[in-house]
Structure formats: C-alpha cells, structure tokens
Amino acid sequence: MPTAPKPIALPVTAVTCLEDRAHVERAAVLDLRPGVQRLRLGPVSALAVDRTLHAELTADHPATVLDARIVREWTPRGPSPSPDDDSDLRRRVRALEAEQLAVEQRRDRLRSRLDVLGRLAADLLREIGEGAGSGESEGPRWARELDRVDAERDTHGERLRAAEARLAGLATELAETRRASELAEREPAELVAHIELTVEAAVAGPVGLRLSHLTPCALWRPAYRAVLDGDSLRLETDAMVWQRTSEDWTDVRLTLSTARSALATEPPRLREDRLTLKDRTAAERRTVDVELREEEIGDLGPAPVLGLPGVADGGETRVLGAPAPVSVPADGRAHRVPLSSFTTAVHSEYACAPELSPLVTQVVRFDNRSGHALLAGPVDLVRGSGFTGRGTLDFTAPGAPVELAFGSRDDYRVVRHAEESHASPGLTQRTVTTHTVRLHLSRFSAPAEQAGQAGQTVAVRERIPVSEVSAVEVRLRGEVCAPAPDSVDAEGIAHWNVVLPPGGRRTVTLVYEVSASAKVAGL
Description:
The chain is an alpha+beta fold. It has helices at 88-133, 139-184, 282-286, 447-452, and strands at residues 12-17, 22-32, 35-44, 54-57, 63-75, 190-201, 205-215, 218-229, 232-243, 249-257, 288-289, 319-321, 326-328, 335-345, 347-352, 361-367, 377-383, 386-393, 401-408, 412-423, 430-443, 456-463, 472-476, 487-488, 493-500, 505-517, 520-521. Strand 20 (412-423) and strand 21 form a beta hairpin.
C-alpha cells in the first residue's frame, strides 16, 4: 500500500505533565478518500513510547483506524537558518575566506602591474638602443626613466612577495580552522519519528483525528511566591516545567498531575513473622536500660532527599490545570507557569527556639484558601523591603492552616545558658538531676525609636524531656521557674509569651527535675 510522501502536520494540542514524564495529545483533520489508505503524520518526538500510542477518529464519519505505529529514521541535520546563529569557528572560517579572496585579487593586480612594467622596461631599453645607434645622446633622461621603472618594479615585487606570504599563512590557518570546526561541531544525524496511520473509510470527506502517547524527558514541580504586606499575604502558586522532548509545546492546554504511572501496583508478598519469648537473666531483671534520643516533631510526609525531590501529594493523586494556554520550549530549562493565587489575612508573631537558634524569626499563619491542595515545594518570600529569602511550604490540604517563616530580626538577641546538678537521696534510692535553663532576651532600638514604639510579644519555646517508662520521672518545678511557662504541651514544649519594650531586656528561667530509680542504667 503506498504511503503519502508529504507528511501531515500533527501539532501538540494538550499535555498532561506527570512527575517524571508527560502524556501528549495531538489533533489533526484528515481528508480521507474511500477505501484503505496509509497516511504519514508528523514529525513527532522520537522519544514517544510505542506501546502507549493511541489513535481515534473524533468526527461522526464512517471510518476506522486499522493500525497506528511510530516509524523512526536518521535524517542529516539541515544548515543553520541564519548566519547569525553560527559559532565563532564558522564565523572565523568565513572571515578567513573573505580575506583570502581579497589577497588573491590584490596578488593578481600586482602580477598584472609587474607584467606591464616589464614590457615598459623592454620598450625603454629598445628605445635607448635605437637612439644610441642613430647618434642620439639623452643619457640623463634615459637614466631617470630606467630608475623610475626599476623603483616601481622593486616596490610592486615586494608587495607581491608579501601577498604570496600572506596567502600561504591564510591557507594554513584556514585549513586548521576548518579542521577544528569539523571536529568540534560535527553534528550527527537527527533521529526523526513519524506516525504511520492506516485508515479505512467508506466515503470521502474530512475527519478529525486525536492521537496520544507518553514521552519521557518532561517533568514539573510546584513553586510558590508569598508577598507579605502588613496583615495580608498574597500566595501565588506556580509550576516549574522542564522538557527536552525535541519538540516545542506551543499554546498547549497544560495539566499538572501527581500520578505516578511508573509506580508498581503489585502488593507485597506476605511472609511469616515469628515471635519468640525468652526468660530475662538476673542482671536484666535488676536493671532497666534507658537512653536519651532526639525526636523530631512534625506531620507525616516524605523524607527529605538530596537533589530534586518528588511531588508530595498526601497519598492522593492531585490534578492542577493552567488557566491559559502555555508555551514551553524544548530547551531543558525551567519555565514558570502560573496556576492560581489568593490574598488572605494572616496572624504574625515573633518566635524563637533558643536551643536550636539564637535568632528571633517572624512567623505568619494563615489558612489555605486557594481551592486546591498546596503541594510541598519551595516558596520565595517577599516582604516590604523586597525579596527576603526562600523557604519551604509543606503539603497543605484545602482550608488547612499554613505556617511560613519570613526570616530573622536583627534587632533581637537571645542568649541561652544551661546547667545541671545531681543529688542522690539515701532514703528514696533515686537519682535526681536538676536542670536549669536561663534565657536572656534583648531588644535593640535607636533612642528616637524607644519613645514611639510599643512592646513586642516574642513567643519563646523550650523543650522538656518526656519519659516513656515509669522508672524515670520528669517534673517541672513551676514554683522555681521565673516566670512559669504559660503552657506545656504533650511533646514537652514549654511556651512563654514575653513582651519586650524598645531597648528592653527579659530573663526567662526554666527548672525541671529528672529522677530515676536505682535500677535505671544509661542516663
């Protein structure tokens, strides 16, 4: 069956970008004739996955798709569309070729001039011989003419030798430059793919075709921009899209999905899990082994990884759509695509955790009013003075609270001092360790600002150990704390709301005891 020699254009109309690949949809209108015919469509990306190719006719037309396949072939790359796109080596070759042509033309002119001077000298010598034979004596004129001709022949001869030397140098340099250009810019043949579509039609007429397939080398990640203006915040949700599929996406309908098509769906096999019991030794019955460990308090989510992280969707596939057509060139660079934005009121506070950092940070809290889930990703922080840094936004469901830190304040300082003391009362047979933590908070303000500013509340957080065994007890000495914590949550985090006036200083003291029985070992 013959195939139409001229391929039919099959542009990309819609793209669903997944976590590590893209689902591409194409559309075209076919002008069919009665009978079975084979059409050539494209070109398309050679990275298209063959087994995912699907073609269907969309119009109400008595036609059927019998076969659809991807055919690939190597095609030499065409010349550059414009000389301005050439590399420095190619431009150097063109400059050397132009200079070589100009020097060759100058050499030819010099040779012609020398030939004329040679004939002039011969005519002059013949004239001198004939004049001397006839008795004429014009020695000064003949000497003057011979000197002028010889001077011009010497001058043009030197110019000719210089031109020939320059031509030899240009030939060597041009050969080396051409060799370097060939080695450095040798472009291999390009792998081009087309779609061969076999269609059977009962009657002639136009019919719409919709074709789709998967392609690798395309991905997306969420990105945000938070602009804080007083008590309001504007959060812009964008998508960073990369693609290097060898064809540009121009004015396509873009959809972003967190579906993982390559994720295995086979459940794990069940294996036996044997539990055994054994008696404890006498030494194990006399002692209780405990250890101190650090626990990070946080919501469930993906573990941080190096490099580009995956899309955290909370275990459920999320789909986001671009509100307008999008163009993404196949250059492998990141392209920012706006998705949504909203403005909401925020609650702002100054917070610090002296055990982790001596800085006081401005923290804002607000609700997610975007209408969709906020996926985990980086967020650019913009305050009144401009860009202040980059933070991280965790996965947030619609309507759930969001917390963002907008950097530290330079006019606050926190100093932490910790000490402990040990005691062993003889009657109780318990070891008591008293921990004392003192936090010194300072606020620096200019003398002119101290009169006009009000006190600022700083939320201070300090942790207390939490015991998981009855042999170890942790007790807060509230009567000794100055001041006593406003609250202590289940994770052992003590909270204070400290008011600092301009130029003020405050000291917060936390005292708690850790008592362990004589059987405890490891503390």
